[in-house]
Amino acid sequence: MFISLSRSCCWHGDLKNRGVSLNAMVFSGSFSGIEPCFTITHFNHAKYKVFSNLKKFAEAQATCEAEGGVLAMPRSHKHHQELLHLLTSHKKERYWIGLRRQNNITVYIDGSALDEDLQLWGEDQPNNSGGIQYCVEMLKEMGYKWNDFHCDNLASFICQYITT
């Protein structure tokens, strides 16, 4: 099943005045103030929220966690294809995902190991350029394959939520 909802940056009050009830459709919590630009998509039992605003890796991770999710963690080729489907409709160059290097090993942010058969790195990646690239993004110029990137650089990001 595939459901998609897109919104531009807006005030929650503006949506309410137009009779749109996004809270019930896509959020377990409520809006407050200005909501960043985003797209929400459901694939089977996962929901993805693509944020167009730019954040450092830790800030993006904190945003996902504050909403009850995590940075997207593609654990299969199928999951990666779902993310590719999402990103082709966006114009941003880079998106944080939930992978990072710890002790010279790339792991998911939940600490689980990356499957050795799941190699979705762009050409010549990971390269740890300058010895400071510890976080992972999906990069448009590489066909949204994985690229290691400095964690303090800014990128858009994808949150993942488990639904039932």
UniProtKB/TrEMBL annotation:
It holds the Pfam family Lectin_C. The keyword tRNA processing does not apply. SMART domains: CLECT. Coiled coil: none annotated. The keyword Disulfide bond applies. CDD domains: CLECT. Keywords: Disulfide bond. It comes from the Eukaryota. Residues 43-160 form the C-type lectin domain. InterPro entries: C-type_lectin-like, C-type_lectin-like/link_sf, C-type_lectin_CS, Ca-Dep_Lectins_ImmuneDev, CTDL_fold. Transmembrane segments: none annotated. PANTHER family: C-TYPE LECTIN DOMAIN-CONTAINING PROTEIN, LITHOSTATHINE. This is C-type lectin mannose-binding isoform-like isoform X2. The gene is LOC106458842.
